[in-house]
Amino acid sequence: MNYTIAMILFDDVTILDFIGPYEVFNKVGDWNIKTCALKAGEIRCEGGLKVIADYDLSAILDADILFIPGGTGVNALIQNAAVLKEITRLGLQAKYITSVCTGSLVLAAAGLLQGYTATTHWRSLHLLEKMGAIVSEDRVVKDANRITGGGITSGIDFGLQIVALLEGSQRAKELELWLEYNPQPPYGLGHPSIAPDELVAALMEKSMENILKRGKIIDTFMKSK
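Request: output the structure for the sequence above.
Response:
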């Protein structure tokens, strides 16, 4: 069956957050992926890679799947009332409301995760909870028609689970093999639950400035509601 995906892009989006799911969805063959932004045109991703959003958000009248990736650019989205209004509009009619990484913070800001179980990058779980979601540390979380993936690399897992839901597990298995999705992390430390405490603490210290900045943005947003 043909499904339409509204994939929302924005400046300072994390590349792998959307490229992983994009690759999975594209391999299905007959799904219609619409890359969109508040205004169509060039998007500068984290690191400087440039991609094109083909559609204005306002031009997307409906979508089967609303998808939002994460990245440092979510800070600006949370403060952009025009973007949130369009996301809320699309989310209220979409069959599935989805995200990877900190894209779930944008869904929450748009009022689409209130009372739903969801996940995000492990460093932002406390912020997602503050915004009204019930947080989970699972790699991919499904609650009714809300489907959220954890940090960055979870996008392929997320994409395959979406395919299994809509096209069946056999199709998802075929795509997993086609993509040679056979992860073998060299250190096996990709989540704080399996990483040494000192490594987690060191990474948190390095990123604390950004975490505190995002926290202040979310505090201001929540007070304005």
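Residues 16 and 152 are 6 Å apart (CA to CA).
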